Amino acid sequence: MKRSYAALSAVLLTGLAYGAVVALTERPVWDKGLPSTGEGRAALAIRDNVTPFQKWGSKAFTGPYLDRYYRSASYFTQTSSDDQKRAFLARLDEALAEHEAVDLFLLAHNNKYVDWVEELSPERRRRLRLVYNTGCRDLTQGPRWLGLGARAYVGHPGASASPVFYFYFLRRWARGHTIREALAESNELMRAALGRAEALSLGKLDAGRAYEESEAFCFGDDQLQIQGTAP
Questions:
Q1: How far is Cα 151 from Cα 201, in angstroms, rounded to an integer?
Q2: Nearest to 134 by CA among 152, 151, 109, 159
Q3: Tens-digit pLDDT profile for residues 138-182
Q4: Rounded CA gap, 192 and 207, in Å?
Q5: Which residues pair with 104 in a beta bridge?
Q6: Does residue 152 sit in helix, strand or coil?
Q7: DSSP 3-state assignment of 188?
Q8: pTM score of the predicted model
Q9: How many Cβ atoms from other residues are within 10 Å of residue 57's Cβ?
Q10: In whole angstroms, what is the distance from residue 124 CA to residue 64 CA?
Q11: Which of 80, 86, 105, 129 is a plausible cystine mate for 45, CB 3.0–4.6 Å?
């Protein structure tokens, strides 16, 4: 078991480096096909307290997409001295009051941000739209997020390779794919990436097991698209 997790950790640590390779097979920037104004919608992302390189990589990849495809975008990074809860909830409350649809990108290990959002009023929370969570084993939060008002929740069931999935998923969501379409394509691309990682690891990584723990699923309305706003 320890060997399996060590191998998976190696894959996750190389996730950002893998982006350089995958860019050879996908356009580095998808900047056509949708208006960039993001009328009526806002997004918030939060990154947990990880290494400086991981913090930099997450923001460098996520920030430009949110800035381009949403009317309002806010990005928070936790530190050892500040979990950003107060600032995150204040901005989320404002965004929910000002915009018809608000998406959340929870870029963190196993987390309980759902407890934070529960503190906001039900009237505000009804404008939550997509919640995507990279956290390992956080798929189980789906029913709770829907109960808080989110229209769709995407998460992973186990010790996941979510950074690889997220690289593909955010690009397709921003491009205008439905959640169902983005989910199917991103899962398959992640499966292929894990297969290549298994070969590079000389068999130390079990790609099949890693995929089972990483495959993303959606609770709620998987026909949502980024252009949609009100229910």
A1: 39
A2: 109
A3: 999 999 999 999 999 999 999 999 999 999 999 999 999 999 999
A4: 9
A5: 44, 131
A6: strand
A7: helix
A8: 0.85
A9: 18
A10: 26
A11: 105
